[in-house]
From TrEMBL:
UniProt keyword terms in alphabetical order: Lyase
InterPro entries: Aromatic_Lyase, Fumarase/histidase_N, L-Aspartase-like, Phe/His_NH3-lyase_AS
Protein name: Phenylalanine and histidine ammonia-lyase
Superkingdom, taxonomy of origin: Bacteria
Keyword Lyase assigned: yes
Single GO MF annotation: ammonia-lyase activity
SUPFAM superfamilies in the record: L-aspartase-like
Database matches in PANTHER family: HISTIDINE AMMONIA-LYASE
Amino acid sequence: MKKIVFGNQRISIEDIELIAKKECEIDLNRTPEFIAKINAGADFLDRMIAEHGAVYGVTTGYGDSCTKVVPSDSYYVLPVNLSRFHGCGLGEYFDAETTRAIIAVRLVSLVQACSGVSFNLVEALFNLLKHDILPRIPQEGSVGASGDLTPLSYIVAALIGERDVVLNGTVMPAADALHTCGLKEITLRPKEALAIMNGTAAMTGVACLAFCRAKYLADLSCRLTAMVSIAMKGNEYHFDPRLFAMKPHPGQSHAADLVRKNFSSKIQASVIPEKIQDNYSIRCAPHIIGVFYDFEPTLRSFIET
């Protein structure tokens, strides 16, 4: 079974799917060097507050309230209030696989050590995955590229022991789930709620799983095309590589190649085509399926970066 270590390797779309489906082992880089790298961001934030006195979302309000000054005795209250303010999601809850994908994607971002969070927060987020403590995240409420603020607030809430989560298939208060697993609620440092919430981990987690499903369906469609062609005594020359070599569409060529690879030479040799030209749904399948393969690299670059 593959082992994925956060903070120690590049994590791909396929890795997120493995994590979501619990088909791999997971771990967190806990070397002194990595811990120091993460904590350096939190230390830098502390220096900024002490030396400059003006840090967005720490000494100021959020959004249009950035002109509002936050008193120093509220620095630790502000992130908690931010998460509570956004606990207004609607609709059905994300399923377990999608929730794991969302948490994993957020963790991938935070281990880059560019968000000003502490290692304590990173470890607490990892522990949600490790112990499969899954926040109940409503599917509706994101504001898109400006951030999955509302969905991700449910992750923050779970870390501080608020709202409900699912543990071993049972819905329970987050605090109870943490205690059951031998964990404690964390105290959010300044900016840490913002670091989790002001991102696109929810839509990216969903996109990772959608990408993998699309890839699976495209590959499956090629196999089914071959099966139907054989069953209907189709003409295999519709998938001849010489035809597709004349077209500047590599996705079509790849799809046709997959169809050909799924032909059994023994079976196909005994098939005498009943028609010189098969139906569109068979002979033009690579043209339709190939669109995904053409855009696969672009989609991957959008999602993984």
